[in-house]
Design a protein that fits this description.
Blueprint lengths: L2 E11 L5 H5 L9 E11 L4 H4 L2 E8 L2 E8 L8 E10 L13 H5 L7 E17 L2 E14 L2 E14 L2 H14 L3 E2 L4 H9 L19 H25 L3 H20 L6 H30 L4 H21 L2 H15 L7 H8 L2 H19 L8 H20 L8 H36 L15 H17 L6
Antiparallel strand pairs: 1-5, 1-8, 1-9, 2-3, 2-6, 3-4, 4-5, 6-7, 7-8
């Protein structure tokens, strides 16, 4: 029989240069057990298994072979992994597809097409850390994921609770964090393998948030925040490998989405917690924003002396971003957020507790309606607003768009509902783009001055005349005001 269990683990990414310091830190009780593990991951040629949310592998250690099926946890891998898994010994390097796991039912006849997809080879060291009533298995994996001729290194720590709650995992993670630089891990080994099978990417866009009818508002909050954390960490990883303007843009978007989530769910959260995280995220967003503004500005500037000076300022901003991302302040920020989330997002008053327990659809509809009304009301008479007020409408419209994406799964079960949602999102995107072009136009001189870049703002390409852009934005606002809200 396959052994079915619920795996709960916290992943931490460790720089390879810090391995020796970690091993000599005194945290580890002994030499630990060592094993060489070779794993083969399987899927159909068109990746049906991945699409259905499962991974299938056979891992060999010595003469022992263990087949493992894991199910996606539905949380987007935002720090803490909680996944159902089915394990059983097998005699050969061929998977056993029968009723003991979900694979046969999930794939049907396509199960016959399952074949090796990629390999994972690691040296694994394992320790058991026991304290009081808690017991945690600490695993250090060092190795490589291989798909054809492409490879990616692995250097990660996995903490799995054997006895005690998740608080113990984070307590141990804090001890590790104090000794060596670690980051929250959001990608399983299987995901890294699948990436090698695809074209190389320069950034990761936000993935759809998996919300379902019947979720409580608190569950929706947890899922959304984990998705934002994952979005950020994936792009942060690309930036730390080598600077990618698109990765920086998406990291900034992820931080904005995370800040928007905290704003949306503020009524059910402790004010002190929201203030603490918003302050840190605001600092990070400002840093990323300054670099992103210069990335955009250099592309909008005609070749010449001014563009060269903007590019020099941009390189300084890039260096500041990388220095910050490598700091303990940023390394610990996402771990802080996921720990807070996992341990219940803080204590709150009874009224906030009731909000946490209400159906997610009710909470979402109320918040969407509130933001929609604000944008419609304050964006009226667009041609009469000053630049600052138009910018406020732009920022609020962006939050409304993020909320509309977060909550989509609660309201778009039918084709008709999906069309409504698509039209609403399209109207928001057009308004955002038009107001964004207007903001770029009016902020150019100030941006040049901020970075000490004297020069003719006319050398920076704009999107047209200010009057025309305002008129276009006004038309886009009218389209949004007339769009049918998908949550009603």
């Amino acid at each position: 029989m396959a052994n079915v269990k619920q795996e709960v683990e916290l992943k931490l990414e460790l720089p390879s240069k810090a391995i020796e310091a970690f091993e000599r830190s005194g945290l580890l009780p002994d030499e630990g057990a060592r094993a060489e593990l070779q794993a083969v991951y399987f899927d159909t040629p068109d990746r049906q298994l991945k699409a259905k949310g499962y991974t299938l592998r056979i891992r060999r250690s010595g003469n022992e072979r263990i087949q493992t099926v894991k199910a996606d946890d539905g949380q987007g891998g935002g720090g803490l992994f909680a996944r159902a898994e089915w394990e059983m010994p097998v005699a050969q390097d061929e998977p056993v597809i029968d009723t003991r796991t979900p694979i046969a039912a999930a794939l049907g006849e396509a199960a016959d097409m399952i074949a090796p997809a990629f390999h994972v080879d690691v040296e694994r060291r394992t320790w058991l850390i026991a304290e009081g009533q808690t017991e945690i298995e600490l695993v250090l994996d060092i190795g490589m994921v291989s798909a054809g001729e492409r490879q990616a290194p692995i250097c990660e720590i996995e903490l799995e609770s054997k006895a005690g709650g998740p608080a113990a995992l984070f307590s141990l993670a804090r001890q590790i964090e104090a000794l060596v630089p670690v980051r929250l891990g959001v990608a399983a080994k299987s995901e890294r393998g699948y990436r090698l099978l695809a074209d190389a990417t320069s950034s990761f866009k936000a993935e759809p948030v998996s919300l379902k009818t019947g979720n409580r508002a608190e569950e929706a909050f947890q899922t959304i925040v984990r998705a934002c954390v994952r979005h950020y960490r994936l792009n942060e990883g690309l930036l730390l490998d080598h600077y990618e303007p698109l990765a920086l843009h998406q990291a900034r978007v992820a931080v904005r989405r995370l800040r928007s989530a905290l704003t949306l769910f503020k009524p059910m959260l402790a004010e002190a917690d929201v203030s603490r995280f918003q302050a840190e995220l605001r600092w990070l967003a400002k840093l990323l924003g300054e670099a992103r503004d210069l990335d955009v500005l250099v592309d909008r500037t005609e070749p010449g002396e001014l563009q060269d000076r903007i590019d020099a300022a941009r390189r300084v901003a890039h260096a500041k971003v990388i220095d910050a991302l490598e700091s303990q302040r940023v390394c610990g920020m996402m771990i802080d957020i996921v720990e807070w989330l996992t341990l219940g997002a803080g204590k709150v008053a009874p009224d906030a507790e009731r909000l946490r327990d209400e159906p997610a659809e009710l909470f979402a509809a109320r918040q969407l309606q509130r933001f929609h009304r604000w944008v419609v009301r304050h964006g009226r008479r667009m041609t009469k607003l000053d630049d600052e007020r138009r910018h406020e409408v732009r920022k609020k419209a962006k939050k409304l768009r993020y909320a509309s994406e977060f909550f989509a799964g609660l309201f778009i079960g039918t084709k008709k509902e999906r069309r409504w949602h698509g039209r609403y999102i399209e109207a928001l995107e057009v308004l955002q783009d038009d107001l964004g072009a207007l903001n770029d136009l009016v902020s150019t001189a100030g941006l040049l001055s901020k970075h000490g870049l004297s020069g003719d703002p006319g050398a920076v390409k704009g999107g047209g005349s200010k009057k025309k852009l305002i008129a276009v934005a006004a038309g886009a606002h009218e389209e949004l005001a007339d769009a049918k809200p998908f949550w009603c």
